[in-house]
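hey so u asked for the seq, here:
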Amino acid sequence: MTHRFTASYLQDSIELFRYYKSLADKAMAQVSDEQLLQTLDAESNSIAIIVRHLAGNMRSRWQGFPDADGEKPTRDRDAEFENPSVTRQALLSEWEVGWAHLFAALDPLTDADLSRETTIRGERHSVLQAINRQVAHYACHCGQIMLLAKHFAAANWQSLTVPRGQSRQFNQQVLSGELSQR
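ran it, structure tokens below
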């Protein structure tokens, strides 16, 4: 992600959501269809379960945002954690729909909307608080996706950021102008 200076909290939040989505997309692209469904142990979630949970959360939180409560009565959160037997295509379609809800909800907002009130499970939040809550939630789960994908890809893993052992070279390229700053 190329860093862009902004004084807009909303624009920065949207860019952070896009960044975490991009990292998770690139991580999932590095694993097989079978590895999307694989867990580390009986108590762990697979990448597919995490994706289904995030997609369900996004559908619930962002449809009708900020006027509707962020926890819809139609959401079956428990089902998001059941072992999915889905194809990569179906899983990624669900993922994209979730993100589409998020961006459709945030794109028309302005920084003036940040102090508006919204609710999640009947609990009052400012729009700013609701966005912060979701940035943190999604970053956590995107990190889980990346960790699992890196584990499953093993020696075939392609770094999503600055590769291990290349920080000095990267910094020199930034300082020399070869790369824009992150």
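The longest helix spans residues 127-153. The mean pLDDT is 92.
lmk if thats what u needed
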